[in-house]
TrEMBL record:
It holds the Pfam family Med20. Component of the Mediator complex, a coactivator involved in the regulated transcription of nearly all RNA polymerase II-dependent genes. Mediator functions as a bridge to convey information from gene-specific regulatory proteins to the basal RNA polymerase II transcription machinery. Mediator is recruited to promoters by direct interactions with regulatory proteins and serves as a scaffold for the assembly of a functional preinitiation complex with RNA polymerase II and the general transcription factors. It is found in: Nucleus. This is Mediator of RNA polymerase II transcription subunit 20. Belongs to the Mediator complex subunit 20 family. InterPro entries: Mediator_Med20 (IPR013921). Its main location: nucleus. The lineage of its organism: Eukaryota, Fungi, Dikarya, Basidiomycota, Agaricomycotina. Component of the Mediator complex. Keywords: Activator, Nucleus, Transcription, Transcription regulation.
Length: 296
């Protein structure tokens, strides 16, 4: 599993998938590997209460189903951001006046991204708890389409050599309307890539995607990018320590010696780019792009 980049082609013509497929086969000697299918849906809470009470604010929830997993993204405006909490905690440890958020760790942060398996388990749980239609209702779809519960991405997966995987497909609303395309490129040799400045855009992926997408007049194409700080906010689990960073700090302080004590070796940490965790980052990119267009 490698590093992934996503592109949104909002006004892609109906023949765009065939054009990309032909370009990959003819100019890049790509090989078809299978179908790319993603299902998205959105919910919103129906909690009521005092408008001044942050706990009563509406909570949007988005689900992205890929392969055998559903990735659930919950936004709670009443919870602090992880970065804000850690910053306030650090300031208190340095002797500054205490802050209410630092009194006790929050049960969760503003953004929560979890993996649910098998697909459909979340709906079954919500139905079992009796919260569907009472506390949570489905939303999504094109404005004016009250029945638009789902949004689908349907396309193909190609490999190019041993370094690249390319996924592309049309974005289709529940009613059948097509809303452009998504094109995703995965560079397999790199498990992670911190972009210059942390803005989330990679010239390597951008140049490669430019060679994949056909040049058509008046095309509206943009890159979906997430900063390194936002990745840390969304993907970091609550209570996760920074053992790796502490170990690296100790390594810097240690003398340059032929022998290295095991206590100074960096701790083994799971990468964000293995198995379902790679799909998790891809799912977050996809839901972010389509949420920005109010399609979910």
């Amino acid at each position: 599993m490698g590093f992934t980049g996503l592109v949104r082609w909002t006004n892609a013509p109906s023949a765009a998938a065939d054009l990309i497929r032909q370009n990959i086969i003819v100019n890049h000697q790509g090989v078809l590997r299978g179908r790319w299918q993603v299902v998205l849906s959105s919910w919103r809470s129906r909690f009521t209460g005092d408008s001044n009470d942050m706990r009563s604010l509406e909570r949007p929830l988005y689900t992205v189903t890929m392969n055998d997993n559903t990735f659930v993204m919950l936004e709670d405006p009443g919870a602090p951001n992880r970065s804000d909490y850690l910053r306030l905690k650090e300031s208190q440890e340095q002797g500054q006046p205490p802050h209410p958020f630092v009194a006790a760790p929050p049960p969760h942060y503003h953004y929560t991204l979890v993996t649910v398996s098998p697909p459909g388990a979340l709906e079954q749980l919500m139905s079992h708890l009796g919260v569907v239609g009472k506390r949570w209702i489905r939303t999504g779809g094109e404005k004016g389409q009250g029945s638009g519960h789902h949004l689908n991405v349907d396309g193909l997966i190609f490999s190019i050599g041993s370094d690249w995987l390319v996924r592309f497909g049309h974005v289709m609303l529940g009613g059948g309307a097509v809303k452009g395309m998504l094109i995703e490129a995965e560079y397999l040799p790199l498990p992670d890539l911190h972009t210059e400045g942390g803005e989330g855009r990679s010239e390597l992926l951008s140049d490669f995607l430019a060679s994949i997408i056909p040049i058509l007049p008046d095309s509206e194409i943009w890159t979906v990018a997430v900063s390194d700080e936002m990745w840390a906010e969304v993907l970091a689990g609550f209570g996760e320590d920074d053992a790796g960073e502490e170990a690296e700090s100790k390594m810097d302080e240690a003398e340059d010696d032929l022998f290295v004590s095991p206590e100074y070796l960096p701790a083994t940490r799971k990468t964000d780019w293995l198995g379902a965790n790679r799909d998790k980052r891809s799912a977050y990119l996809i839901q972010g792009a389509l949420k920005g267009e109010a399609l979910i």
